[in-house]
User: Fold these one by one.
Assistant:
Number 1:
Amino acid sequence: MEKSHGKKMQKDLDVLESRINALEASTADGFQKSLLGVLKGMVQNQRHLIDESDHLRKAIDLITLQIFKVEGRLD
C-alpha cells in the first residue's frame, strides 16, 4: 500500500510541477518568476525526499531479512 501511496505522491508532484512551469511560462513579472522558481525547487526537493525514503525503506527491509537469517542460523 505504501508503494502506491508514494507513486500517487510522485504523480501529484508531477502535476504540480507542470502547473508551476505553465505559470512560469505565462508570466512576465520577475517577482512572480522568482516565486515560481522557489516553488519548483520545493516540489523537486519533495520528490527527492520521497525517493530517498523509498531507498531507506528498502534498506531497512534488507537489514531485517538479514537479521532473521542470522537468528534462524543461531536456533
Note: The mean pLDDT is 91.
Number 2:
Amino acid sequence: MTSVDDRLVSDWRRRFQVARQLPAQGAVSSDSMSETFRFLTRRTRDVHRSPWVTEPALKHLQLCLQQTLNLTQILLEELPQAGDCRWQGFWNELAGLVDRQLHEIEQQIAACELIHEGSERLQELVFPVIEGRMTSGLELINFAKEWQSVLKHQAGEFPLIFPDPSGLAVVLANRGETHTHWLVHALLSAQFVSALTPVSVLYDEQCLLNLTVASLTQDWGAWHAACYWPKTDPVERQLARREPAHPAIGASVLAGLTDLPAFVTLLVGTHHERLDGTGYPQRISGPRFRPAMQWLAIIVRFVELLTDPVTSHMATGQNERLLNLTAVRFWREVRRGAFAEPLARQFLDAIEPRLSEQIANRFADHLSRLVDSRHDIPAPLGRLDQQASESAETVVPPPAFLRRQSGQRPIGQRLTITPKPTENRSR
C-alpha cells in the first residue's frame, strides 16, 4: 500500500514545466495516449460510484482518490502536447502511476465489501452462541472453511493491509452493526492466518483451520462480558475488569459447543499470552507456550497495532506506509522478548518479502543513533502528549494492569503479614 504524498502532484507539474523548456523533437501519434486517458477516465468514474469513497471515516481512501484525480487532471492538461517525443515518456510514466493508484483503490473497495459481508455473517453466529441457543460448532467451522476458501481464491486480488482499519470499523457501525471493532479485528486476523499457509510447513490443514476458528472467535469473551456483566461501574472500570478476563470467558463459552476441537478453546484462552510471561490471563511462558499459540498471539498483537488509531495517526503525520509503521511497533516488542524472533520473522516475510530484514535494519540503525547521541533525556510528557508524540522505536511496557507499581505486590501473590515482635517489658 502506497502512502499519500502531497508533494507528488507538484513534483509532476514541475517535471512538465522543465520539459517545456527543452528543444522540440520529432512528432509522434497521440492516438494511443488518448485511448489510455479514456480508459483511466472510465475507471475513475466507476470508482466514484462506490459508496465507500464517500465515507468520512475512510480518510486515507479519500486522500488516495483526490491525489489520483489531481494526477489525472495533469494528464488532461498535457494531453495536447503528448504528440511531442519529449512529452511521451513523461506522460506514459504518469499514466502508469495513475493506473497503479486506481488499481489500489479498486482493491481497497473490494476488500471493504468483503469485510462487510464477512462481518454480517459472523455477527449472526455470535449471539446464538453466547446466549446458549447454539450448541453445535459445525456452523462456525463451516463459516471458517468458507472464509478460508474465499481468502485463498482472492489471495492476489485483496491486500492484507487496509488503509484505515479503525475507520472501517466506524463505517460498519454507521451501517447498523454492533461491536464492529471486534468484528474487523477478527476478520483481519483470519486473513493474516491465511497468509501463513506458505510458511507454515510444520502444520497441517487442521491446525490452520483451528487457527482460523480461534482468530474469528478470539473476542467472544469480551462480547459476552459486554452483554451480561453489570453496567453499574463506570466505563473505564468495566474495560479494566473485562480486558484481563475475556480470554478465559471466551474459552469457557466455546467449550460448551459440541463438534468444536478442544484445541480451539485452548488457543482462544491463550491468545494474549507472551513468551516472556508478561501476557494474560495465565502468564504462561517458555515451553508451555506452544508454537501454535505463539502464531495466534503474534497475529492478534499485530492486528491490534494495525487497528490502533495511534498507528494510523502516526503514519499520516510521518507520511509513511501503515504496514511499515505497524511492523516497527511490533518488532520492538519482539526485541523485548514478548515473541519468538524466528516466528516473528516468518510472519513479517509472509506479509511482504524481506519485510523482517528491512524492519530489523531500521531498528538497529535507530539503536545506533541512540548510542551515539549525547543529548539529555527530555522531561516526561503528559500521558496523552506522550502517546501522540512517541517514536515508533520506543520500547512499549506490558499492559497497564500487569505492571508492578511502586509499593504493590505482583499480581497473584498473596499478602503475607509478618507479626510484629513483642517487647519484654520488665518492671
Note: The chain has two domains: 7-17+30-104, 110-371.
Number 3:
Amino acid sequence: MTVVVLGAVFLVLVALLAAATRSFDHVVSPVTLFGLGLFLYVVAIPMEVTLTGNRNLSLRSTIVIPQEVVTQVVPLAFVALIAFVVGYLLIVDRTPFTQPTFSRADIAHAQRALGLCAALSVLVMLVLFGAQLIATRDYTTSYTQRYESPLYAVGLAMMQVLLAMYGFSLARFGRHPFRDAVAFAGLLSMWGLYSNQKTPIVLAGLVALGYLTTRVRKPSALAVGTSVMVMPVLLAVAAISFSTFRGGGVLQLAGRSGYLTTIEPAGPFVSIVDEMLDRGSSAPASGFGESVIQGLVGWVPRAVWSDRPLDIAEQFARTRIPDWQPGEGYGYSPFAEAVHQGGLAGVAAYFLLLGLVVALLRNLLLRRRHDGSALTIVAESFYHVVVLLLLFTLFRGPLQAFVTTFVQYSVALVLALVMTALLPRLLQDSHAVGSDPDPVEVS
C-alpha cells in the first residue's frame, strides 16, 4: 500500500502547489495542469494496480506491468513534479493577479478579429475538406485522415483552436460571458463527440475557465486545493464515459476489470514500462539526447525535409504493434523519454527545462495583460487555450509532439494578430468606399 499512500501524498502536493500559485496564476496554473496530467498518466495507474491487484494494461494485447515498475514510478514522478515547479518558479512573473481593464473598443476589436478568423477557418475547412469532416464520425476514419493528410490535420487543429480562442475571448471579456461560455463549450463538446476527438472537449473546458476567471475575483486556497483533489475522479469518469461512447458500449463504473488501465493513459504507460525495464528499449533508434534534439526540429514538414527521422512515438509503435498500420500507436510518454535520457538525472533535467520553457511562454504572452490593447486580448486567449491545452495533454506524446503542435497552433496566433492589426484599416477603407463623395460643383 506504500504506492497508494505516496500517490495520495503526490496529489495533496499538487493541490498545495496550486493553492500557492493562485496569487499570480489565479484559478488555473500551469503547475496545476502539469501536476494533474502527471498524476493521471503516470501516478494513478500504479495506484490502481496496487488497489485492484490487476497489473494488466488492456490494449490491443494484454501488457503486464511488472511489480518493480509499479514501485519505482511514483518516486520518479515526485522528481518530475518538483523539477518542473522549480524551473517554472525560477523565472515566472509573480506579479499578483488583478482583473485586467481593457477599453470596450479594444475588447470589441479583438473579438471581431478572432470571430472573423474563426469563421474563415470553418469556411476554408468546409470548402476544402467537407467530405473528410463528415467522415470523422467513424473513429478509424477520423484518425487515419489526420495521419495521412498533414494539411487536413493542421487545418482542423487551427479551426478548433480559433473557435476556442474566440469563445474564450467572449467568455472572459464579453458582455454576456455565461451565455457565450455555454454556447462555445457546448459547440466544441458536440464536435468532439461527433468527430471522436478528445481535444475539442478539453478546449470546451478551457473556454468555460474563461468565464470562471472573470467571475472569481480572488480564489481561496481551500477552494483551489479542494478542486484539485476532486478533479482526478471527475476527469477519470469523463474519460471512461468518452471511451465507452466512442466504442459504442454501455457505461459501467462498478465492477469494471480496470479503469485507467483500460483507457487512454494506459497507452503511453507502455513506453514507461519498457523504458524502466530495459533502458533504451522503448526507442531503440534514439540515442542519448537524440529524441530531444529531434523534438525541437521535428516540426519541419516532410515536404521540406524529405528524410526527416521518424518521431519517437512512431518508432515505438512500429516496434511494439504487430502488423502496424499508419495512424496506429500507443502514444509515447515524455516521462519515458526523460527516463531514456538518463534515469533519475534525465527526469530532473528534462522537466526542469520544460518548466523554464513554460514560464517563458507565459511571461511573453501575458506580459502586458494589465495595460495592453486588442493584441493583448488575442495573446491572452492564445495562452489560456493553447499553452494550457498542451500542458494538460502533455503526457500523451513526446517532446516532438509538444513542439510540433505548438508551432502549428502558433500559425493561428499569427493569423489572429495580423487580422487584429489590419482590421481597423480594412474597416476604414470599406467605410471610405461606401461613403458618399464630396459634392462637386459642375459648371
Note: The first strand starts at residue 56 and ends at 58.
